[in-house]
Amino acid sequence: MITVDDLREHPLDQVHRLMEPGPVILVTTQQHGIPNVMTNGFNMMIRHVPPLIGCTIGPWDYSYSALRETGECVISIPDRELAVAVVDIGNCSGQDVDKFQEFDLTPVAAQQVQAPLIAECFANIECRVVDTTLVGTYDLFVLEAVRAWTDPSHPRLRMLHHRGDGTFTCDGDAIDLKDRMHKWQYLL
């Protein structure tokens, strides 16, 4: 039988590497008519109906003030072909760089929010901020998806997942267990 003495303690400051919260996403905002995009690795689904998404964006992020002021954004989901751009977008600030121009991203007008979609991404989710009670303490915005789009020309989505140390994994083969989801059939 295994005991705690057989295990190796993991540093608490690296727990995020064990429990990755969601795919790496791009978050677009628009403030005073100027669009911006940031890389985000701390996000999660909170609820199915209404579709609520948690996203950590702090005052150190240039997009923070736009999100606070406008109360809206777009979550764009890149695939592995954008991996280098996704990392490079996260290494600079929209305060200094027009990231759409710098990284050859195509802004597409959204229908429900002012922030743009990103044409090169597999999916785009238009969101409105619905709860800011955790922003002051945890920089956690609760967003409600108000419109979602996918690009059918993408043959297979391969989302990026940051491992917390500069390495990434990509989604692989899907395992279909729909027939076992007895309790959750309404989600299929």
UniProtKB/TrEMBL annotation:
InterPro entries: Flavin_Rdtase-like_dom, Flavoredoxin, Split_barrel_FMN-bd
Any Pfam family the entry gives: Flavin_Reduct
Flavoprotein listed as a keyword: yes
Annotated organism of origin: Streptomyces melanosporofaciens
Keywords assigned by UniProt, alphabetized: Flavoprotein
Gene Ontology molecular functions: FMN binding; oxidoreductase activity, acting on the CH-NH group of donors, NAD or NADP as acceptor
Domain of life: Bacteria
Signal keyword on record: no
Family: Belongs to the flavoredoxin family.
Name the UniProt record assigns to this protein: NADH-FMN oxidoreductase RutF, flavin reductase (DIM6/NTAB) family
